[in-house]
TrEMBL record:
The protein, known as: Protein artemis
Principal place of residence: nucleus
Name of the gene this protein is made from: Dclre1c
Gene source species: Crotophaga sulcirostris
Cellular component, GO annotation: nucleus
Lineage of source species: Eukaryota, Metazoa, Chordata, Craniata, Vertebrata
Gene3D superfamilies named in the record: Ribonuclease Z/Hydroxyacylglutathione hydrolase-like
């Protein structure tokens, strides 16, 4: 039996280009989320989820999320996390030019919000291995650099943790102006909150 179905792609906010699928047909409406990250109020601003003055009647939602588990009782908001990281990075980098931060980011995409906000707030560009993957995201290009002489790094290496334990950054940098670097590592990770009681 044939049926016409309208499929709408909605921004998922997980990483650049990620989408949720809204299926609408004679037998009802279904939303498949995939991995997604939406701030409070963001769904309310998605016009395509609304019909007239109300929200569309969605019969089924297929929720694809790692965090649908009671152990993730409280995950801080993106803003709370950013403020905590900002405070730590600001206090560390203000000690000297040789105090640097390594953002231990395990995925290639999804940290753009963090990079942009750190750069804007602190006036420090974030070092990345290469700019290629960000070429289609012009809003971030002003905030990242391939110049290693910066205090915030998000560079990557196959043996990242070994580099850090050897007091060098994944890009190989160990000193600046002849003085050794003082490196702290920040691992932006939601999984951390599921591994702890409080």
């Amino acid at each position: 039996q044939k049926e016409d179905i309208e499929v709408t792609l909605l921004p998922a906010g997980h990483c650049p280009g990620s989408v949720m699928f809204l299926f609408e047909g004679g037998n009802g409406t279904v939303l498949y989320t995939g991995d997604f990250r939406l701030a409070k109020g963001e769904a309310a601003r998605m016009e395509l989820l609304h019909s007239g003055t109300g929200v569309k009647d969605i019969q089924s939602v297929y929720l694809d999320t790692t965090f649908c588990d009671p152990k993730f009782y409280h995950i801080p908001s993106r803003e709370e996390c950013l403020n905590g990281i900002l405070e730590l990075v600001r206090s560390w980098t203000s000690l000297s030019r040789n105090h640097v931060v390594w953002l231990n980011c395990k995925a290639a995409y999804g940290y753009e919000y963090l990079f942009i906000n750190l750069s804007e707030e602190l006036g420090i560009k974030v070092h990345v291995n290469k700019l290629d993957m960000f070429r289609n995201m012009p809003e971030i290009l002003y905030h990242i650099t391939t110049d290693r002489c910066t205090q915030i790094h998000a560079c990557r290496h196959p043996r990242d943790d070994d580099c850090f334990r050897g007091n060098r950054l994944p890009c190989g940098m160990t000193c600046q102006n002849g003085a050794p670097l003082h490196i702290i590592s920040i691992k932006p990770s939601t999984m951390w909150f599921g591994e702890r009681i409080k």
